[in-house]
Every structure is written in structure tokens, then in C-alpha cells.
Model the fold of this input.
Amino acid sequence: MFLGAIILNLLSSYFIASIFGNFLIIFVAFFALVVLNMVILSLFSAINETNAFILVILNFILSLTFFKIKKAKPLKLNFDFKRFKNSLMLDKHLFILFLGFLFLLLVSLFLDIIMPSLEPDSQTYHFIRAYEFSQQGSLAHIMTNDIRALVMPINSEVLYAWMYLFKKNFYGYGIVSFCGFILAICSMWNICEKLKFAFRKRLYAIFIFSSFSAIIMQMQSLQTDLVVGSLFLASLALFINNSLFFSSLSLALAMGTKTTGVIGIIAFFIILIAFEILIEKNKKLDKTKRFSLFLIMNFLIFSSYNYFSNLFHYGSPFSSRVAYLGHVFWGGIKGYIANLIHFFFQSFDFTGFKWGFYLNDEILAIKQKVFEIINISPEIGCNVEQDKVNIAADEQVVGFGILGFLVFLPMIFLSNIKIFFNKNKKTIFLFILSIAFIINILVLARTTAYMVFSIRFIVAYVSLSSLVLIYAYKKRGFLRYIILFFCLFNMILLSTHNKRMPIPYVVDYLKEVNYNLEAFEDGCFNQKVIDIHITSPRIYKTIKEKYQDKKRILFLKKLSSSALYLKKLEKEGFKVDFLPVGKFSEEKIENYDLIILEDKVQNDNIFSTDEIKINYKVDNEKVTFNDKNAFNCFYYFESHLTSDKKEAVERICFSWEFLIKNKKVKLDYSDFFNLGEENKNTEIFYFVRK
Done:
């Protein structure tokens, strides 16, 4: 049924794209149809496999009917294969890069089809969220202890949930990011075709963009910044092609996919306005005005669901107050300057090369010296500081590699210089893109507190401005060989040695399980492919061996703990909940046969200030609780974020003391083990209801 749903939805998208005459619309329409169908079903709490497939069939019938009524011609791929072949033959570097590009595509597609969701964010909220949507029958807020699984935009998880309805497994969802990458390069090509950039320069820009470390890592993951960047590019391409409805639809989908889509709105509208005034010579901005009206409508239909849910639950469309405090920019002008310095120095990324290890102390020392000279603390405005120069192929912290600071940033600078010597349409356009990138960084630095993980957000903005790489193309020169080397290194070696899915290990284990993907999925979670340091497979095994009769299970897990694998138990008749530990109480015990506790003390997000109940005193850093028998929590406050009122952003709860003294449960089994990562010792306690 999954293949049937994919094929029918693709055909529906193809008919729509044929009616409006643009290949890019296939991607946008496919995404939009899935979101629309799931939102409609969610309104009636009717999300399930049967209903979703009925709407897929209905989409197909309606789009085919509309296609016939409009007497639309079948969409043809407008690509000059002869010029493409000639370009590769005339420039051997392009031909070699093309071969590396094909290798990259094949490797990434292979991994995206077979690999389960192993990234930490995916296991703690991205895919957990999608799974719960599919199980509860709606897109309403789920039961979780991670505030990100509630307040963040949901469109990518809606797509994952739609896929899970038919797939019923945890692997293959990386294909969404892969399709996002394909949309990005198709949009780049479409823009270049419209503005008549030289054929070889287009290819060169696309190949360099494809070889950026962060692009490769996100192409092989469930992170959504690349998807947002591709929707930005598609929106721009469709705007240039005067397809304003679908241009606005693409941007609306980006706004509903990740907050970076909202942060990038200012720079994106500057691109549209500047393009219409400077290149199309239309000072009335007719296109931008119509685009804006369509955007409002499309946002309300396709991307507003969770914004309204947040408004209903928390009084704000963006997040709860405490989630806001956990991520918001702070530190005033000094914090803003500090953020920009952090971003600049993090651009020195050496993914895949030990050079970064040898240069680490020098780069961080220079960074520290800059802060000392301007008399600003590097901790101002910062939530998670960079402690080392990156060399790892880890999607959580990977930057854009050596090509990022060797090629991309210089091309941004060159785009700002060239405008003074040549003011043709191409130069103006690339200047606009370079300015948009700078604005996006300036807005990002003022919008959120800096984290070393923030480098991922920039993927969306690099994607949008990626065509400045056209300036990197030269027919000769030593720089061509340097670029060729790093591009091929990333395309061939980096793509096959992703930290969480290295090809040698993947292929070996696939052979071992005779290419059984269900067995391969289990092996990945059970650390037989790569050591991912999660507790849930061990808990899963214990439940299957000791607690087959305990069908209602509560897992009181730590905030960052990855527990996705436990959801596999629900296929076998179990019900597993991840209740926020701060919302746990004696009354909740009656709902469960087995309560699993991860370590004696849990940290937890706070979803509302109403949950803060201070029943303790702090004297010389010693905490004394008023009621020793109650379920007690200690709260962390961030005084630097509020002016006249302290508000907690996280709590520490003493779950062990409450459960071990409670007369309704008894400790039945405890399991102590080492996760294998920096000696992370973990203890799991199993309490059964008396």
C-alpha cells in the first residue's frame, strides 16, 4: 500500500505540475497534498492508513479530472542533454566532478532507503512525534517530556507520520531529505536557466554545493534544514517563473517545517523586492504583493496547525514561555556581537581532516583573544559554546567543511565587490543573494541564543544563496585543483563515512542478515552496525524476557534519552508512554503495570509556568523539601533571561525516592550498565504494581 500511495500522490502532483507548466511544482504539490490530507483527517481525529489512502485516491481522481478539463499537455523535462554532454567533454574537471556527484547520489539514496532513524534529535523528538501522530489519529500535542516535540513546526513530521501509516517500520525516512536535495539542485538549475547563466558555471556551482559537508550529512539524515533550504530555492525559482501561488506555497511549507523558515522570511522578501525592482524594473511590486496575499492563505491552510495548537495551549503561536526562555537570544548588544563572533569562527570547519585537530588550539586562542580585545565574555548570549574545531562527520555539529571557508565565504565577499564594476542582471542577482545570506546570519544571531548546534540552521541559508558559487568557476588556475580535490574527497569518502551510518559497517551487516531490512533495523538499534549509545534496546530485551504480561508500561526517562526503539513493543500488544516526569503523580500509578525509571534522578522540560511548584528551601546550596513523601522536583532558573520575575526552564525530579517509598509499587529488578560513551553509567529500575 505504501508504494501505491507514493505512486498515486506522485501522479497527482505530476498532473498539477503539468497544468501549471513547471517541473518544480511536482515536489511542492506532493508535500502540500500530504500535509493537507493529514490536517483534514486530524480535524476529525481520523488519521489512519485506510482514511489516508482514500484521500490519496481522491487526490488522484480530482487532479486527473482537472488535468483533462484543462486539456493540459504532459509535462516534459526541459533539459539540453547535448549541451550537458559537451560541457563535460570540454572540461575534464566537470566530468570528474559529475562522476563523484553520481557516486554521492547513489550512496545517499542507498542509505536513506535502508537506514533507521538513528540521530539523537530524531529519536528524542522528530520521529517520536511522527509516530505518535500516526497512533493517536491526530496532529494534536502528544505525551512527551521534550518540549521540542510539542512547540516546533510540524510539517516534516507530518510527512514522516503519513509514511509510517503505510510503512509500519522505522527505516527509510531519510528519503525526505534526499528529495529535498534534489529539489534544491533542480531549483538552482531552473533559476540559472531563466537568468541565462553559463552552462558550465551552473554545473560547477551545483557540484560544489553538493559536496559541502553539512549538505551531505543532512542529505543522509532526518534533519530538516536542507528541506527548508530547498523550499526557499523552489519558492524563489517559481517566483522568477511567475508561478506565484506555488511560490508562496513552497515558502509557506518551509515556515511550517522548521523555525529557520520563519527566521529567513525577512531576507527572502528582500530578495523578492530587490529582484522585482532591480532586475524586472517593476517598482510597483505587483508580483510581491500578490505573492504576499497567496502566502497568507497558504500559510493558514498548510502550515498554521501547530502554531494554533501552541496558541491554544501556551498563549503564543511559537512556543511555551519556558521553551522560549530556553532558546531565546539574550545578552543585549554584547550578546549579539558575541553570537556573530561564534558563528564566524565556527565557519572554520575541517570535517574529515585531522588538520582541524592540529589547528584547534590556535583557532580557539584567536577567538578568545578577539573577545578579550573587545572586552566581551564569550559566555554572553551563549547556551552551548563551541569547545573544539570540528573534524567529525556528525550531523549535529558538522559545518560546511574546508570548502565552506575556502570557497563559499569568499564568493559571498566577491559578490559584494563585483557589483561595483558590473551591474548586469546576473551580477545584481548574485549580489542580492549574498546580501540575503548576510542578513539571514544577522537575524539568526539576534533571534536565538548561540549553540554549537546552530550551525545546522545555516544550511537553509547557504542553500538559498548557493548560486554565488558560480563565481568560483575558472577555466584554469591552481584553485581549480584544490576545489576538485576537496569536492571529490567529500563526495566519495565523507559520504561513505557518516558517523552514524558508515558504509563498510552497513554493508557487512546487511550481508550478515541476508538483506532482511527488518532484521537490519533491529541490528542498528542494538548497536551491531554502529555504537549509538542508547538504553532502549536493552530495556526492550528485558521487557520481552521478564515482563511479557505487563502490557501497560510507563518509561520515566531522562530528557535527552533516546527511546524510539521501545515503541516497537506496541506492535506486539504493549502500550508504552513517555510521561513527563514532572507530571507524574500517585494517581498515575493506577494506569500502568510496569514503571521503568532511568537513573535515580530525572531532568525534565517544563511546559508551563503553572507547573512550577516550589516546596523546598535552599540554604548554602543545600535543598530541603517540605514533604519528604511527596514527588519532589527542584527547579533551574535563568535569571539573566527575565527582568522582574524568575522563571524556571528545567526541573530535576527525585523519582527514585518517591517510587521506592510508594506502597503501590515494588522494585522488581535493576540493571546497571555502561553505555560505552565517555563512561556514561546508566541504571534502569523496574517497578511493578502490587
